[in-house]
Amino acid sequence: MRKFGTNISSTTSFTLMGFPELESLEHWLTALLLLLYAISILGNALILFIIKEEQSLHQPMYYFLSLLSINDLGVSFSTLPTVLASMCFHAPEIAFDACLTQMFFIHFLSWTESGILLAMSFDRYVAICDPLHYSSVLTDARVAYMGIFIIIRSFCMLFPPPLLLKRLPFCKANVLIHPFCLHPDMIRLPCGDTTINSMYGVSVVISAFGVDSVLILLSYVLILHSVLAIASQEERLKTLNTCVAHIWAVLIFYIPMLCVSMVHRFGKQAPEYVPKFMSLIYLFVPPMLNPIIYSIKTKEIRKKLHKMFFRSKL
């Protein structure tokens, strides 16, 4: 029994899988992922640069957008090392502690993004339902406190899972199906009792994603109620148009996240590449699309981009 219950210290590394079932398309898939990384990093960096340089964008809505862009950059950089190592350089081994660290940051940033999207929905609610008090409700100090609270909440929620995993014995082949470390993937490998890990994971999903999504939905119910009270149809559309970018950001974040959760929990019989692709969509698509959506749907950012590129051509 002592030999079977190997202490965690004997587990030194994990093997990250790429897409061996798509070996003939591996180069194309790698090129696609690198392109998505480039778009995500350049797009979010450009959003941050524009907001920093343009004084008219120093408002709560754009402060939250800055937080979203910083968070999306974090998501990209947290997965980039292992994706490059496993798919470009064919070096799939990752140290145990490094894997736990990457797992923490991936999920921490996901929970933080959920909190930022909730804060952005509150911003839209105040701007539309109580515009006269917008500047007094969303002061710079309160925006900063909200950002700090979101980060602390995510840290407190995501600090226990790596510790809970580290206490378990790993006696199976330590092969992860993704080119990065995710909690649902890692929790399959211990040969000890993972009930606490599973229960904690479900409780965190419900308390964070569940509550955040319900509050976002509630804010839009109140926004829609307020918009319908506007007499002019043109004004209604103009008001709702200020929410379009945020609505898209919410959809492209929560829908893939829900699909990943469902596949890992209930799709045991699905082919192995299904959860892999769902996780890639979940981690790659929102950071790539968010700056594109906000660049297209936000007039001030669109104008600044036009000025930058127009001047550069001159």
Can you characterise this structure?
By secondary structure, this protein is mostly helical. It is built from twelve helices and three strands; from the N terminus they run E-H-H-E-H-H-H-H-E-H-H-H-H-H-H. It has helices at residues 26-53, 60-88, 96-129, 134-137, 140-158, 160-166, 183-186, 195-228, 233-241, 244-266, 273-297, 299-313; strands at residues 13-16, 93-95, 175-176. A three-stranded mixed beta sheet has the order 2-1-3. Helix 1 (26-53) packs antiparallel against helix 2 (60-88), helix 3 runs antiparallel to helix 5 (140-158) and helix 3 (96-129) packs antiparallel against helix 6 (160-166). The protein is globular, with a radius of gyration of 22 Å. The N and C termini lie far apart (75 Å). The relative contact order is 0.14. Residues 1-9 have low confidence and may be disordered. It is found in: Cell membrane; Membrane. One of its GO terms (biological process) is cellular response to lipid.
